Each structure stands twice: as structure tokens, then as C-alpha cells.
């Protein structure tokens, strides 16, 4: 009996060691990024773990760098916030509205709309890149925030997730509220939305993360420097032959940090939502 | 009366999608089909109808041919890699009595990174004087031009994307593993079934729905790669990492051949659609044949 206990202990220790090792391998690029953003410039990309540190990369980034003009980094950070939050909020609101109609309102043509959503969802999006760009150009939105927000204001995935969630909500809740004289909008915002807290957290975080890291679309619909999002600026600044690896890592940290902070803040609810999500 | 009200209300609630679907999906889809048969250059006001010549040109173009093959080459590396990695992570983490969610969230972190950031980090790690290359050079005398060699460049792109998705898929697989009844394993242990047999006869069949989900997701990822390739290799060397999106982007926004690029986009959509359909059918057949579904 004692022997089997020892064996269990040993196998657990091995498990934990392997898991920790795997975790280190997975998180290593992040560690490398953070350490190099603080590393002395002579050591960036020269050592796996730098030995001397300075804040030079960050001060370069925020003070002026090469050109001496107030750096575009904070401005593009701000752009990213406007565009991602704007798009994500619209995706959530529209997603909830449309899903409610598809799940809980019996109207003529619902099946047709539902099928159309599914068809749209499984349609390879790549074919739409050029014509959508042309739509934006034709309506005069090229090089504006709207060009980055409006075409990304609808998430089929969010509609799909919410429709499934709302379908599982018993209709008696809604009928009871109706008898009490609640309008459909009230039912939606006072009953359905609060009920969906955990799944809403998951959907919101995933959509925001995806929008925050979008490259292709934001790259083609915006031209002027002051409109660039952080991700696009990072991509353009540190292209193939760029120098300044230290600031490159600092800017990468700047881009990564907000999302990680959000996931940590909403960590617990995210976990609950994921569990529901994956059932 | 009630239904009439419902009809109005339903259409009202669905209207944001209907407007969006018309402006950014159906309309553009038709426009794109039309453009594919013209020689429009994105700037000039006039363009001509050129029939199927864009499609014929695309078939003959080595860049388009390569983007076709690159998709499947990438798939053959990426899908097994990400499946094996996420399965390994899920199996190891599953057996931990404590700190399970801490590990899972740690593994999930790469999923939050922007493709631009992960590409820049990898580029730094693989630069000529990087610690990795310096080590290989000084100790073994090996010099590898990681992003300049077709084979290694493709491997690196597949590796970064697998790194990104493994933790996310591990979450899906862990919840699949958690739903398996412990008693089945206990019964098998009493019957003297070996560890390896237990994996093949219990875990795999019962985990099949979760594995199916991750496989479909990862096959889907294969057809939409852009950021990592754009940032790391620009499609090179010698088209080795030239994806559909990369080729369409180049033709439309660099060479300004909107009509031609639309034709390539249509080909890409057809290839994607057929591939995903066939893969789905094959996976379902595989599951049914083994009696897992």
C-alpha cells in the first residue's frame, strides 16, 4: 500500500514537472518579449535572458525616437481603443438583438433569415475583401474610423452563440414578463442580457481580442499616419529591415498588455463562461 | 393580431443583420463575381469585360498554384502539430489535482497575442545574432537561414500558429475529458487494461466529439492565414509561404489588379469550400466507421 502511494506521488511530481516545462515553453516567447523590452540595447536579441536592464526602449517609444516628433504610439493606441471598443460594442448589441429575434420571436421568414445567417457564416470571407473595400471607398468612408468600425460591426459567431443560448432560456420567463406588461426591449435588456452574463463575458473578450489584433482590414482601409491602429503601426514600423529591436519589443508589450489585463480582470467569469460554452 | 405584431417586431430586431448582410455580404458577393470577369485596375474609371481570361491567367500563375499547394502543405504540418500539442496539454493538465485552471490559463495566453507580435518575436529569436543562432553556430557550426529557406520558413509559420491555438484547443479538449465518466476508467483498470489501450479504447472514442471540433477549427484556420506570413516572409522565399490571402492582397492592393484578384478570391473560396466539405465528410466517416459517433 505504501509502495503504491509513493508511486502515485512520483507520478504526480512527474506530471507537475512536465506541465510546468510545457508551460514555460509555451509562455517563453512572451517572457522573451517582456525581458527584451527592458533589456539594455546592446543585449536585445543577443541573450536568451538579458543581464542588464534599462527603460531606454520605453522612453524612446514615448518621447520621439528617430524623428523627435511626439511619437504616434499613444495616438495609435487611442485609435485602437476607439476602433476595437466601437466595433465590439456594436457586435454585441446587434448580436443580442438578432439572436433574440431568431430564438424567441416567431415571425414569418424567420427560418429564411436563420438559414441566411448560417450560409453567411460558412461562406469563405476572403472573397469579400476587395468588394467591401470598394463599398467603403464608394460611400466616402475611406481613411476614417467608420471604415474600420462599420464593416466589423456584425459578428455571425456572436449571433450564433447567443441564438443557442437564448433558445435554452425557458419561454415561460418571457411569457410571465409579458403578462406583467414588459415590452420586448425590456425583456431583452432586463431579463435575457443579465441571464447571459458569463457567456457575454466570453463573447465580448473573444470579439475584442480579435478586433484588437486585426491587421489586414485596418491596413487597407486607412492611409494617413494619424489614423493607424496600434497593430498596423507596429507592423509598419518594424517591417523586414527595421532597426530598433528594443522599442519593437516595448511596442509589442504595449499591444499585448491591455488584452491580458482584461482577461485577468474577467478571469473568473471567463472560466465559467467557457465551461458553459464548451458543454 | 398577435402574429402580425410579432412579424413586425421580428423583422425590426433582425434588421441590423439584414442591412449588414445586404451591404457587406450579398451586394459585394455579386460585385465580386462581376469584377472577376473584368480587367479593372482599381483606379481607372473604365474597364472592359474580359470573359474567363482572369481565371485562365490565375491557373497559369505560379504564385496562385503555389498558394494552392502551400495550403495543403501547411495543413499537413499544422493540423497534426496543433492536435498533438493540445491533446498532450489537455491530458497532462487533466490529471493535476491542483492548479489546473492556472495551467490552462497559462497555456491559453498565446491565443491572446497578435500575429504581428508573435511574428516579430520569432523574427528576433531567429535573427543572425540571436541567441538561438549564435548557439547553433558556435557549438555545432550549423548556420540556418530560417526564414530564407522554403522548408524551414513554412515550418516556422506552422509552428507559430500551432503555438497560438494549442492552448485554446486544449481548453476544449479538457472539457471533453472532464465529461468522461471516471467509472469507465476504474472498470478498465480492474480488468487490467493497459494505459495505452485505455487511451485507444476509452479516451479517444469518448473524446471524439471534442477532437472533431478542434480538427474542424484547425482545418478552418488553414485557409485564412495572412498576418504571420505577411509579417514574417511576405510569402517567400520563392512562394514557399504564399497563402491565398497573401496572393489576393498582393494582386489587389499592390499590383492594383482588382478584377484579377477577384478571380483569385473566387478560386480560393471554391477551394476552401470544397476542402472543408470533404474534410468534414471524411472525419464523420472516420468517426462512424470506428463507432465513435
CA-based gyration radius of chain A: 24 Å
CATH superfamily of the largest domain in chain A: MetI-like
Q: What profile does the largest beta sheet of chain A have?
A: none
Taken from the alpha-carbon principal axes, the silhouette of chain A is globular
Query: What is the string of SSEs of chain A from the N terminus onward?
Result: HHHHHHHHHHHHHH
Order of helices and strands of chain B: HHHHHHHHHHHH
Distance between the termini of chain B: 46 Å
Shape of chain B: globular
Count the DSSP helices of chain A.
14
| Averaged pLDDT of chain A | 86
Helix content of chain A: over 70%
Q: What is the domain tally of chain A? A: 2
C-alpha end-to-end distance of chain A: 38 Å
- Rg of chain B (CA only): 24 Å
GO cellular component, one term (chain A): plasma membrane
Transmembrane segments (chain A): 12-32, 77-103, 115-134, 146-166, 187-209, 248-266
Protein name (chain A): Sugar ABC transporter permease
InterPro entries (chain A): MetI-like (IPR000515), MetI-like_sf (IPR035906)
What key attributes describe this structure?
heterodimer; A: mainly alpha; MetI-like fold; 14 helices; 72% helix; 0% strand; B: 293 residues; mainly alpha; 12 helices; globular
Description:
The complex is a heterodimer of chains A (279) and B (293). Chain A has 14 helices and no strands. Chain A has 279 residues and is mainly α. Chain A has two domains: 2-54, no CATH class; 73-278, MetI-like fold (Orthogonal Bundle), CATH 1.10.3720. Chain A starts with a helix and ends with a helix. Chain B is mainly α and 293 residues long. Chain B has helices at residues 2-35, 53-60, 62-94, 100-108, 115-125, 131-140, 150-178, 182-190, 195-222, 227-232, 244-254, 258-289. In chain B, helix 1 packs across helix 12 and helix 9 runs antiparallel to helix 12. Chain B starts with a helix and ends with a helix. The chains are: A mainly alpha (279), B mainly alpha (293).
Amino acid at each position: 500500500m505504501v509502495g503504491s502511494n509513493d508511486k502515485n506521488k512520483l507520478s504526480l511530481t512527474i506530471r507537475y514537472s512536465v506541465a510546468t516545462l510545457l508551460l514555460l515553453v509555451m509562455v517563453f516567447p512572451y517572457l522573451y518579449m517582456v525581458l527584451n523590452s527592458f533589456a539594455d540595447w546592446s543585449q536585445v536579441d543577443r541573450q536568451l535572458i538579458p543581464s542588464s536592464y534599462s527603460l531606454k526602449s520605453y522612453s524612446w517609444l514615448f518621447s520621439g525616437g528617430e524623428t523627435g516628433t511626439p511619437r504616434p504610439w499613444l495616438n495609435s493606441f487611442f485609435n485602437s481603443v476607439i476602433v476595437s471598443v466601437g466595433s465590439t460594442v456594436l457586435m454585441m448589441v446587434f448580436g443580442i438583438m438578432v439572436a433574440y429575434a431568431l430564438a424567441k420571436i416567431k415571425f414569418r421568414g424567420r427560418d429564411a433569415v436563420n438559414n441566411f445567417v448560417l450560409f453567411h457564416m460558412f461562406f469563405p470571407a476572403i472573397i469579400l475583401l476587395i468588394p467591401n473595400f470598394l463599398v467603403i471607398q464608394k460611400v466616402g468612408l475611406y481613411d476614417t474610423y467608420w471604415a474600420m468600425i462599420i464593416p466589423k460591426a456584425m459578428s455571425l459567431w456572436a449571433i450564433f452563440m447567443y441564438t443557442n443560448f437564448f433558445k435554452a432560456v425557458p419561454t415561460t420567463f418571457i411569457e410571465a414578463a409579458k403578462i406583467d406588461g414588459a415590452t420586448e426591449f425590456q425583456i431583452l435588456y432586463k431579463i435575457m442580457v443579465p441571464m447571459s452574463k458569463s457567456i457575454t463575458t466570453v463573447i465580448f473578450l473573444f470579439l475584442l481580442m480579435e478586433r484588437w489584433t486585426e491587421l489586414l482590414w485596418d491596413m487597407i482601409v486607412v492611409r494617413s499616419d494619424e489614423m493607424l491602429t496600434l497593430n498596423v503601426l507596429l507592423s509598419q514600423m518594424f517591417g523586414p529591415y527595421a532597426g530598433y529591436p528594443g522599442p519593437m519589443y516595448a511596442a509589442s508589450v504595449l499591444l499585448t498588455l491591455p488584452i491580458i489585463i482584461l482577461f485577468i480582470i474577467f478571469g473568473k467569469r471567463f472560466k465559467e463562461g467557457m465551461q458553459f460554452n464548451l458543454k | 393580431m398577435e402574429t402580425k405584431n410579432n412579424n413586425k417586431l421580428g423583422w425590426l430586431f433582425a434588421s441590423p443583420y439584414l442591412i449588414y448582410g445586404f451591404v457587406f455580404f450579398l451586394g459585394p458577393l455579386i460585385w465580386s463575381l462581376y469584377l472577376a470577369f473584368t480587367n479593372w485596375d482599381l483606379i481607372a474609371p473604365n474597364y472592359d469585360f474580359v470573359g474567363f481570361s482572369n481565371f485562365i491567367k490565375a491557373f497559369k500563375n505560379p504564385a496562385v498554384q503555389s498558394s494552392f499547394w502551400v495550403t495543403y502543405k501547411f495543413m499537413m504540418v499544422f493540423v497534426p502539430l496543433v492536435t498533438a500539442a493540445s491533446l498532450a496539454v489537455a491530458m497532462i493538465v487533466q490529471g493535476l489535482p491542483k492548479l489546473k485552471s492556472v495551467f490552462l490559463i497559462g497555456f491559453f495566453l498565446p491565443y491572446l497575442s497578435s500575429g504581428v507580435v508573435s511574428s516579430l518575436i520569432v523574427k528576433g529569436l531567429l535573427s543572425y545574432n540571436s541567441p538561438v543562432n549564435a548557439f547553433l553556430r558556435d557549438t555545432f557550426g550549423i548556420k540556418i537561414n530560417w526564414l530564407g529557406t522554403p522548408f524551414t520558413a513554412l515550418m516556422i509559420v506552422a509552428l507559430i500558429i500551432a503555438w497560438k491555438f494549442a492552448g485554446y484547443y486544449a481548453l476544449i479538449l479538457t472539457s471533453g475529458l472532464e465529461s468522461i465518466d471516471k467509472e469507465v476508467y476504474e472498470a478498465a483498470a480492474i480488468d487490467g487494461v493497459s494505459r495505452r489501450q485505455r487511451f485507444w479504447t476509452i479516451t479517444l472514442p469518448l473524446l471524439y466529439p471534442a477532437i472533431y471540433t478542434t480538427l474542424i477549427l484547425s482545418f478552418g484556420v488553414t485557409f485564412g492565414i495572412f498576418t504571420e506570413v505577411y509579417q514574417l516572409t511576405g510569402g517567400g522565399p520563392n512562394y514557399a509561404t504564399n497563402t491565398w490571402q497573401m496572393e489576393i492582397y498582393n494582386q489587389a492592393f499592390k499590383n492594383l489588379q482588382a478584377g484579377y484578384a477577384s478571380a483569385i478570391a473566387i478560386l480560393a473560396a471554391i477551394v476552401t469550400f470544397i476542402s472543408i466539405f470533404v474534410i468534414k465528410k471524411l472525419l464523420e466517416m472516420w468517426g462512424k466507421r470506428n463507432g465513435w459517433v
